[in-house]
């Protein structure tokens, strides 16, 4: 177990172990980090918007500080995130940058979000998962890395970057701790799933205790935490224009450690990451083990963000070369083998099996009889999506919201695929949105399948929680994807649905039922990321320039170096 850090109220730390260099320099950097560097908004391509095919480690170009993009979405020409905090219309109540009056529940949402803030050494370091005094706390009183992402985006969009900077530094410090589950040591790059700040009024000190999976359900390490941390660091840098945080040696090393876990060579025959059940937002047994779309999309986005954040010097040369190679292979694999539309569905339906040669068409030896009946009715004539999982003799045809939205935001999806995903959302609005946005996956498992796959999990019954439940936090991802694809009307329609119920239902964690009509049977009230997800969606809709901090433009020069090789057989 990691040893806690003892901190008295006067701010003097007492460590059981020697203090690392990061904390020693935090205060020295405080003055530098108070003011963001001057942002260059010259209309040129920003570093991350350049093709990574152009990048050469032989000639390291000057480090470019955040610039606007020439090409953004089809609708908004200037949607790269500039430092533009909203104007204040009252205490803790921001007003739209464009002068729109906020919806009546916006003020209530901000007050609820601020109540969830956690302080350590008198500085805000995150937001707890939920403030629901009517239910047992369990681990809802902790700061989760993935849960804090929408909160951090809300604060960045509102011109309050300090809490985000503090969170990034504190979680980076936690990464350096020794991580053990029983007698097994986890990799150095693993980020915590969550951490808890505890205060002892008798001894007058505070401690931070991190959970790397040793306390989680199923004892699974959070694969997504490191990816979200990299994505959030890039969002902070884009929003503030301040590169000094990302350029700290500790941050550069932290990025490399995360990616070394993913880019190391082994027995893999695919560029996707092999994962256990429960390693991401779906943190219970739900049949997503293997190569789940959520992890692959986050992996792709984190790789692209890392290229933006890493200094292109000799120390990072090997890592950047590995990132570029993996991005090429991963984008080809995902776009080719995970994509499903009416044509591809028909091709799978007609697959032959037991093919063995370089000319095989059914490369994963998928049995056509394994196609679920529901997918034929679910697939519209116009539209498509990235399926949940692809591995030998197995395809999970379920729709997963987070993976598909991140695929759009990261430009893992081609523009045509991104448009098709939004076509699907519009065509299957009743199934995916219903009366409250948004289904985490579709459809739900029922009966014998539910018993076998979930192990009779009483929390993941049909159309509840992760098993076809409705999660308001996903609203911000749908909104971002809708704006990027030039369909803000989809976001507006979903936001209006959420506004009709979220406040009066006390901001629940999730909803149950095919249409999302009922508050979840075990849902916490005042769930922080439900609150923050709504605020981020509302602010992005009112000021689409905020999209730039969480969206990456397509790399038009990224063309597969290989054809769809028949040698990738199973």
From TrEMBL:
Coiled coil ranges: none
Catalyzed reactions: Hydrolysis of terminal non-reducing beta-D-fructofuranoside residues in beta-D-fructofuranosides
EC id: 3.2.1.26
Superkingdom of this protein's organism: Eukaryota
GO biological process, one term: sucrose catabolic process
GO MF annotation: an example: sucrose alpha-glucosidase activity
UniProt entry keywords in alphabetical sequence: Carbohydrate metabolism, Glycosidase, Hydrolase
Annotated InterPro entries: 6-hairpin_glycosidase_sf, 6hp_glycosidase-like_sf, Glyco_hydro_100
Free-text function comment from the UniProt entry: Invertase that cleaves sucrose into glucose and fructose.
Family to which the UniProt record says this protein belongs: Belongs to the glycosyl hydrolase 100 family.
Record-given protein name: Alkaline/neutral invertase
Organism: Solanum bulbocastanum (Wild potato)
